[in-house]
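Can't paste images in this forum, so I'm doing it all in text. The chain is below; anyone willing to post the predicted structure tokens underneath?
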Amino acid sequence: MASLAEIRARIAAQENKAQKGASGAQSDNAIYPHWNMSEGTSATVRFLPDADSNNTFFWVERQIIKLPFNGVKGDPNTKQIQVQVPCVEMYGDNCPVLAEVRPWYKDETLKELANKYWKKRSYLFQGFVRTNPIGDDTTPANPIRRFIISPQIFTIIKSSLMDPEMEELPTDYMRGLDFNIKKTTKGGYADYSTSNWSRKESALTEVEQAALEAHGLFNLADFLPKKPSEAELRIIKEMFEASVDGRPYDPDKWGAYYRPYGLEMPQGVAQPATQTSQPAVQAPAVASSNVDEDPPFDTNEPVVVPKTTSSDKAQDILAMIRARQNKA
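Text version of the structure:
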């Protein structure tokens, strides 16, 4: 049985974690912002295994849906904002947003809108930063950093793992490989397509081994967005409908559940026990992976668009799609 001191310590740790999530703070500087590198520079990182022995991989996948809004209700000075919500397909459940969006791909005129609301993947890794070109980045007390990796970089990582010439896991402590994140530009956007694994194996240094001994590995799944409750799924769907309709974000309705980064929860709004927080650090989109998923383009039946729906208003589009679904 746990002692009173252990129980108190665990409760304090949980409360501290909840406060961080609610405020959006990232005080430990654990996430390495490789997107802040200057063009033409390279960061060398050494990935480490997941603390979860049941995870076959040394990463976990994040699935996020981005909901754009035309400002904030009651604030005429705000411009378009964006709210990120977890896609529950990440947990093996049916996502109410994607259930509505999937049929849009049957219509050529709706594919662009469908892409806007389709889930975006990123991948969470952990490891050491061995070469850091970001001058103002400070190494935290725990030098084991977390990395939010875009699909563009992840494709390079994954494809190399299938290379028969790679004999050891790159996370092996003694015979592992470094990974070089190289930033260039393409079409005016950041591009990481030249990133690669180092060819030479290397062992962890004594300092790195000591850090592992002192701090241990992260359980990567602990840093995924919390699975939404049924009430939160209803809020997500309501926000999605408002976003498509072109309405502004309503902090009084949704502020206790999901908020755009930097927006405080309105006073007098009760915070639900199952509140889901936004990720504190968001990697900017990469040009080559703006649509970084596998949308369901392989639809079977063509859809005829009624002439009365030629309007580009979001309300008309949403009503048309729902009428189409009800008829089916």
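The longest strand covers residues 120-131. The chain is about 25% helix and 15% strand.
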